[in-house]
Design a protein that fits this description.
Elements (H helix, E strand, L loop, with lengths): L8 H9 L28 E5 L2 E5 L2 H11 L4 E9 L24 H8 L5 E4 L2 E4 L3 E9 L5 E8 L8 H16 L3 E5 L6 H15 L5 H13 L3 E2 H12 L2 H13 L16 E2 L4 H6 L12
Parallel strand pairs: 7-8
Antiparallel strand pairs: 1-2, 3-6, 4-5, 6-7, 9-10
Helix pairs in contact: 3-4, 5-8, 6-8, 7-8
């Protein structure tokens, strides 16, 4: 029987030497990976296409959070399992903007000292080194003046108990990002409706593949809005008559939905016989915990 691989000081040091947690876009390598050479994650892992590479997600909850992140209109890049600096250093946004200040920010070591929290460690073969803390998703977004900024997201499973040592560890992560002026969210399944997440999972293929130009999408948005309050298949069939291809029709419909051009109630399902309903842009944003910045942290 194969033994479960465990984290050791040697393994963490190896990750750093391999350059894990560094790079941007297609060159980024997550610190923890979906690989047989890595200790297994607790949840079901996923691989998703992004920027000519595979995003490596360690649980269903991370996968759900990624789907919500994809709906952000100003999303530039996604870095999963990004390590937090132990000793401190330059701002993580500098990877995208060389004009960012060369100011040094606190690392987890100093933050633990200031908060009075014992820093996590990893032990093995008579050695002990500081554990490299990570953030599950670090999103790079574009501001109205085209400057990049970051949004950090920690993701925990259903019924996660936010107290004791677990809460203190998250407090380190939260302080790390807030010290850098980066907003930090704690996303759990309690922050969104399961039907919304299911709809996103089932429509991901149409929403993210064969990406259609925004101007082309908007050409059909009014038709899709006018077709609401009746089964989805009636609207899809009507649009298919114009386009001649159902796969393209599905892409246009769901990409209009995911971008918010056609804000529908995602609670009501995705199947062709389901009746879809238009809701206000505000109500649509509230369905997405990342878009409306809803957090489990109290």
């Amino acid at each position: 029987m194969r033994k479960t691989k465990k984290f050791t000081p040697n393994l963490i040091e190896k990750y750093h030497k391999l350059g894990r947690g560094k790079g941007t876009f297609s060159e980024y390598i997550p610190f923890h990976r979906v690989s047989r050479s890595d200790p297994s994650s607790i949840g079901l892992s996923h691989l998703k296409n992004w920027s000519d590479r595979k995003l490596e997600l360690l649980s269903n909850c991370e996968n759900d959070a990624l789907l919500f992140a994809h709906m952000l209109p100003n999303l530039i890049d996604i870095r999963e399992q990004i390590p937090l600096s132990y000793e401190g250093g330059l701002h993580e946004v500098k990877d995208y903007d060389t004009y960012t200040s060369n100011q040094n920010f606190l690392g987890t070591k100093q933050i633990c000292e200031e908060l009075g929290i014992k820093h996590p460690k990893v032990n093995g073969k008579g050695r002990s080194i500081p554990w490299t803390m990570t953030t599950d998703l670090l999103l790079t977004l574009k501001s109205p003046d085209n400057k990049p900024y970051l949004l950090a997201i920690s993701i925990k499973p259903k019924n996660f108990i936010l107290e004791g040592r677990s809460k203190r560890i998250l407090e380190i992560e939260k302080t790390y990002w807030e010290n850098r002026g980066v907003e930090w969210l704690l996303i759990t399944p309690e922050t969104y409706h399961p039907n919304v997440a299911l709809t996103l999972r089932m429509t991901y293929h149409w929403a993210m593949h064969s990406k259609i130009n925004e101007n082309e999408l908007r050409r059909y948005a009014d038709i899709l809005i006018e077709g609401s309050e009746r089964p989805l298949y009636l609207t899809l069939n009507k649009l298919k008559e114009k386009l001649g291809d159902m796969s393209l029709t599905q892409c246009i419909f769901w990409q209009n939905v995911w971008t918010g051009n056609v804000p529908i109630d995602l609670n009501r399902g995705w199947r062709p016989h389901d009746i879809y309903q238009i809701i206000s842009p505000h109500e649509f944003q509230q369905l997405n915990p990342i878009l409306c910045r809803r957090s489990t942290w109290k």
